[in-house]
Amino acid sequence: METTGIILRVGATLFFTLMVVCVKFLSGTVPLGQIVFFRSAVALVPLVLFLKWTGDFPRALRTKRPFGHVFRCLLGCAALFASFASLEYLPLAHASIIGYLAPILAVILAQVVLGEHMTRARWGAVGLGFLGMLVLVLPQASAAELDRPYLIGAALALLMAVFTAGAKVQIRSLAQTENAGAIAFYFAATCSVAGLVTVFWGWVQPSPLALLWLCGAGLSGGGAHIMMTLALQHSEVSKLAPFEYLSLVFAVLADLILFQIIPQAAFYLSTALILAALWLNLREGRAAPAVKAA
Q: HSE-up of 57 (CA within 13 Å, CB side)?
């Protein structure tokens, strides 16, 4: 059972990377809102099929916390727009490593919103995480020629991390009473509507290849959500968490193979700092129950 959970978690990470690759190929050629719409609307197909297969559709969509879903969906939708917008300016690996700030920021929000205890180790993780981001971004800001596109991308990726952190905290609250499939369904439905509204600001007629990337983003995103849900049914969250870091490996490989981008020294130092922050955060999270039990 545990092996199945790990395989599914790795598969989810790979599918999320495929989704990001599809979006990267579309950046600059298809409007952002149109990309969000296709990614979300097409993802509803595998999500609904999955819920029907598990016998949870439409029963699981009933909720006693509609406003909780609305708040989570608005945060997640804002994060999705910012994430996809950042891919026009950043290599996949850089967008991924800045995105790793989300679980670190979620620790701070969890203290404020959920009243969770903030230890010195957790504050240390937050500090390391932001130091890692500065190591990545400052060389671009202090260069002889200011790399404005890169800084715009970094700002968007940081904004994505902030909104994702808020969404994670809200999901943690919703998961106590709501079906995981319903949370994913309402998110995809909300982003579909938000993306569709942008048709008034102009969409394009996608080429057959662009249409393939658009549908690929939706199917891979929906498939990733399904595998993530199934993985959590087979294994504990703490045992699956380390495999999330494979997204960085997949992103570096995609940059190298598909876009011929080789990471520079600052990227490796930034990665080490942010991964150290994540490890400290994970270690503290595992230790917390033992302290309470004592």
A: 16
- Predicted pLDDT of residue 41: 96
Non-local CB neighbours of 17 within 8 Å, separated by 6+ positions: 92, 247, 250, 251, 254
8-state DSSP, 90: S
Lookup: tokens for 112: 């404020």
Structure tokens at 57: 């559709």
Mention every residue, 6+ apart, whose C-beta is less than 8 A from residue 112.
Answer: none
The separation between CA 284 and the C-alpha centre of its own chain, rounded to angstroms, equals: 22
Distance CA 273, CA 259 (A): 25
Binned average pLDDT, 10 residues per bin, the chain of 294 residues: 82 93 94 96 92 83 86 93 95 88 76 67 76 77 70 93 87 78 87 95 94 97 86 71 78 91 85 79 56 34
Cis peptide before 289 (omega within 30 of 0): no
Domain boundaries, given as residue ranges, for the chain? 2-293
| Spatial distance between the Cα atoms of 38 and 216, rounded to a whole number of angstroms | 9
The per-residue pLDDT for 290 is: 40
What is the spatial distance between Cα 53 and Cα 233, in angstroms, rounded to a whole number? 15
